[in-house]
Amino acid sequence: MIDLVEQIVQHQLEASxxxxxxxxxxxxxxxxxxxxxxxxxxxxxxxxxxxxxEKLAESARIWTTTIAKxxxxxxxxxxxxxxxxxxxxxxxxxxxxxxxxxICISSQVGCAMGCxxxxxxxxxxxxxxTSGEIAEQMLRLQMLLPAGERLSHIVVMGMGEPLxxxxxxxxxxxxxxAEDGLGISARRITISTVGLPPAIDKLSKLDTxxxxxxxxxxxxxxxxxxxVPVNKNIGIQKILDAADHYFDVSGRRLTFEYVLLSExxxxxEHALQLARLxxxxxxxxxxxxxxxxxxxxxxxxxxxxxxRFREILESHGITVKFRHRKGDKINAxxxxxxxxxxxxxxxxxxxxxx
Length: 354
Ligand code: SAH
Prior knowledge:
It is built from 11 helices and 14 strands. The protein is of the alpha/beta class. Residues 113, 115, 117-118, 157, 161, 192-194, 215, 257, 259, 288, 290-291, 293, 334-335 line the site of S-adenosyl-L-homocysteine (SAH). Residues 113, 115, 117-118, 157, 161, 192-194, 215, 257, 259, 288, 290-291, 293, 334-335 line the site of S-adenosyl-L-homocysteine.
């Protein structure tokens, strides 16, 4: 079986089309139908001869995944529960904000990082997604838009640690930024990482131009290791060094993310330490007040605590942005995507297509 999205992402579609005894330009047509025209079946590909459409229906497929569930929230956020061919399930999200059409995609089935406040790691990691599976999320979410609308931003902030799967992630992101792919500028594509220095160095070496966001969550190693256990063998300094180097070679301003957890990392001394740590960097600090995860003992800081945290950082010249919550009514907000959550164990016969 020829998996067309994987072939597109790996630049192998022409070769496969030729193996089917077809001229090369058929690859371009196929690609155009799937990526630009957003069709769902071979029958709709009206400029392909009927015999070829039938042949394709036998030997190739557009999707390796199915949509197990599609949820829409009042604020326009939509979440897809995507079923993989081996039965694994992942989630991805479309967010609407003014003119922006941002998608949040997953990179792994589950996550191995074990951040104590995040739902995605609660059941551990099952496997890496393939490049095709990552790109299929983009195309599936694109199909939720009316024909005249385009995806404008991608954040790799769904399930998984993207830099633990960097070799499969990059072909999918290159497809997203390519002119004959989704045409989304690399600066509008964000890789959010717990901070894995060798993989960040790889991005520097490959001269990728994607935007990098580092999930910091604590201003010192003792606290960070408590909240983000993988920090134990890494340490904040190595992450900052790798991130600074990425900034030097890519010219992309860095973002640091900080989930604000009541009484744990939101006190004035934490804000002060954080200000010292980030001082001098042309970086943005993205603060995300904790989104509750059922069963976890953490709390969202009060508005006063959030305000106090912001003021201390701003008074030290740090650029701070609070990320307002979107999609939390349908458990689609940061940290709420979970591999084995009860609501995701819906039977497949309830499946609907976008
Ligand atoms: N593994 C990557 C990407 C996935 S998480 C990373 O660590 O960056 C995307 C962002 O959501 C991260 O900054 C993460 O720390 C944050 N997040 C996770 N759980 C959260 C929660 N319960 N509330 C708010 N933000 C959360």
